[in-house]
C-alpha cells in the first residue's frame, strides 16, 4: 500500500531524517511515536510531498509519488496536521464540500454523487446537527470531526493524521480515536497517525513506528515496540508493562524518570 525506502531529509544542512524505511499494508492503522523533535511530523510531510524529497523514495500502491500529479495524489491521500484553520464564515457543509475538489474539473459544480458523498461524510462523523454551523464556532472535538469529514469526502485510500488528539480533553480524544478506528474497520481506509500517548497508540494501532532523533528504533506490533527497554532508551523513563490491556494490547504504567538520565 505505502512503502518508504531510504528516506533521508536535511533542512538548512541539518539532517532531520536518516534512512527511514517501512511498509504499510492496505487497511492498517499505523501510529508513529517518539519524543518531541524526533521527526514524527516531518515523516508525514515528506510522505505527503509537503516537503520536497527525491524520487523513488515514497511509493503508494506501487507508484512513485514523486511522479504523481498533486490533484491525483489528493484523490488517493488526505493529510490533516495539528492546526487547521478555516475562514470565519465557512460552514461545516462548505468545509466538507472542499473534500470533493480533487475529483472536480475547474469550475465544475457538485453533482448528485458528490452530494451523496458529502452527506455520507457528515453522517459518519456525527455532524448532522452542525451542518450549517460556522467551523469557527465549534469546540475542538467538533472541529476535528469536521476536518476529518472533509477528508472522508475526498474518498482517499490513505489518511495521514498529525497528532489528531492535540488540544482535546480525554473524552474527545477517545471519541475521535474511536471514529478513526471505525472508519478504518468499516471502509478499509489505511490510517497513518502521529500520537503522543503511548497507550492510545498501543490500543488503536495494528503496528507502531518508534522514532528517535530522526531514526526508526523499532517498527512492529504494540507487543514488539512497547517494551520497558525501548521506552527507557527512547523516552528516558521507567515503566511497567501490563500485558492484559484491552484486546490484549500492552498497557504502560509510568514509574518515573530513569535513574542516570
TrEMBL record:
Q: Where in the cell is it found?
A: Cell membrane
Where is the ABC transporter domain positioned along the sequence?
2-238
Q: Which InterPro entries match?
A: AAA+_ATPase, ABC_transporter-like_ATP-bd, ABC_transporter-like_CS, P-loop_NTPase, Siderophore_ABC-ATPase
Task: Tell me how this protein sits in the membrane.
Answer: Peripheral membrane protein
Task: Give the UniProt keywords, A-Z.
Answer: ATP-binding, Cell membrane, Ion transport, Iron, Iron transport, Membrane, Nucleotide-binding, Transport
One example GO MF annotation: ATP binding
Mind telling me which PANTHER family this protein's record contains? IRON(3+)-HYDROXAMATE IMPORT ATP-BINDING PROTEIN FHUC
Report what the protein is called. ABC transporter ATP-binding protein
Q: Which organism is it from?
A: Kurthia gibsonii
User: Source taxonomy lineage?
Assistant: Bacteria, Bacillati, Bacillota, Bacilli, Bacillales
